[in-house]
Amino acid sequence: MKRVRYFDLLRVVCFCMIIWYHMLVELCNDGMLALEDVSPWFANANIHIGTLSVAVFFMLSGASLTISTRGQIHYKQFYVKRGLRLLVPFYFVNICCFIIRMIQVKSFSLLITGTAPWKIFLGITGIDAWLGLYGVSSFSQGIGEWFLGCLVILYAVFPLLRKLMNKNETVFLAVVASIYIVMIYHYLSPVPVHQNILVKGCEFVFGMYLGKYWEKLDKKILIVSLPAVMFCFTSSTPLVINDGLKITISALAFFVTFSFAENILQKSTCVYPVIRFLSGCSYELFLVHHIVIISLTSAAGRYVCNKMNLWILFIAELAAMAAFTALVKVSCDYCILRMKRIFGING
Fold first, then answer.
1. Residue 146: what pLDDT?
2. Beta strand spans in 100-157 (E)
3. Alpha carbon of 247 to those of 43, 45, 209: distances in Å?
């Protein structure tokens, strides 16, 4: 697979925004900060860094899978590699959290009493937190949240989406765009639009096209995308368009704008290796960051009485995230490597 450097940069930037957002929200939830005071730090009339980052991540997933499966797709290798990559770290973090909870309550049976087997099965698949959006009670510990379940389903149907795209790119894009427009302008689901799997699936497909043609992006597009990004981040004048459409347009503009950093990153011998390393840890960080933020913010709440203590808490949370991410990354990479050998999968 050809390494697309600006994909790594996008992952790092978007995850920094998500961590920042979740830290601030948890401080508000614990009463240390007022939401109205900090909301300008992560949202304005046109953009919310959380929903923007999530949309970009779905596009990145579609783009990365498209690039990594150029040529003939080998289904066994595809599903085993992606399944291990998604689920092994997910299981590892879940088991660690379950053990910690078991130690806290000093009982194993207390944690599973009354839990139906089908709920445990949904937990194994990784889609239980996503189903929770639709009122399905599950065994989820909140790890991976709705995002992981949505991503697991899109990974599962990716070979079909890829086949449809390759069969007739124009028709498939027109169909997906039509579904997207209908969903956005006639939205009836109780699930927020930025969490709807059909909307995120459309963004995933848009990412597939961005991945297929990433080398052919005309620099003239920057004339449109860069001002759009700057407007979304800085303007207090709201765009009078559908909120769901606003998220997708801003994510596309953000994605395309970053594509023009590719040549700069190719020449970088110092900065890019750091970006690539951080990008490689992004999934494990995603799994652990919310747990760290919630745990440390709740525990340190009574000690945070001024801005200095607040910044110390931020630094402590970042350090804890780094430590737990490293533990998960090293442990799971070893397990994944061994399991690939068992399945006869290379790479």
1. 93
2. none
3. 12, 12, 18
